[in-house]
Specification:
Blueprint lengths: L2 H29 L19 H25 L4 H22 L4 E2 L6 E2 L2 H29 L7 H21 L5 H25 L10
Antiparallel strand pairs: 1-2
Helix pairs in contact: 1-2, 1-6, 2-3, 2-6, 3-4, 4-5, 5-6
């Protein structure tokens, strides 16, 4: 494929994957009336009935990040910040897949304590790494965009959404238990909005083909 066609292809694949991710997760929410979107965290759906839908949604989201990695690599002017961003995106993809495959720990039957398992620890570490790397990514990407005239105007949008995700993450730490699920879903919506906006831009941008690394 020509570079421009490749950029449009990766952007289009990501745009298709985003609503599929939302639809898959919404189906899981409907099939689990025992869970509350206000209280229960998203990772709590990765165990129990229909948990495979949560894994499918996680893998679809990982595929979306992968499409962005490939699209940005050929569309943005090469630089050290772009290389760092692509490395971060790659680890984000792996972290998402691991988080989706390994179920989270559950509470004991009387909800008095957590039941810790090896799979749950792997899940927790991967989930924490995902959010940490995502925050780092949304700081390095604006710097990469500033080095490309076609993407420069998008750097402020990316930086704003990064700080918005950070605000939700901080809010999650202080949110009441009955609202933690809602706050986490707010974070997920901002992430999906960023993915969608970036994918739409990939479809319109003519890839950078001649510059050198900065």
């Amino acid at each position: 494929m020509k570079p421009h066609a490749s950029s449009r292809f990766f952007g289009s694949c990501a745009i298709v994957a985003i609503p599929l991710t939302i639809l898959t997760w919404a189906t899981l929410e409907l099939l689990r009336p025992d869970r509350s979107p206000l209280r229960n965290m998203l990772n709590e759906y990765l165990g129990g009935p229909f948990s495979f839908l949560g894994r499918v949604a996680g893998c679809l989201l990982a595929a979306t990040f992968l499409m962005l990695l490939l699209g940005l690599r050929i569309s943005v002017r090469p630089s050290g910040f772009l290389t760092a961003s692509c490395v971060l995106l790659g680890v984000v993809v792996v972290s998402l897949c691991v988080t989706a495959v390994f179920p989270a720990d559950t509470m004991s039957p009387d909800d008095s304590r957590h039941i810790f398992t090896s799979a749950g620890i792997v899940h927790m570490v991967s989930a924490a790494r995902f959010y940490a790397l995502l925050m780092a990514l949304l700081l390095t990407l604006p710097s990469a965009y500033k080095r490309d005239e076609k993407w420069r105007s998008f750097s402020r949008v990316t930086l704003f959404l990064g700080f918005l995700i950070l605000a939700f993450d901080v809010g999650l730490m202080f949110a009441p238990l009955d609202l933690r699920g809602l706050v986490q879903r707010g974070t997920a919506l901002v992430i999906l909005a960023w993915l969608l906006l970036t994918s739409l831009r990939l479809r319109r941008i003519i890839p950078f083909t001649h510059g050198t690394a900065v």
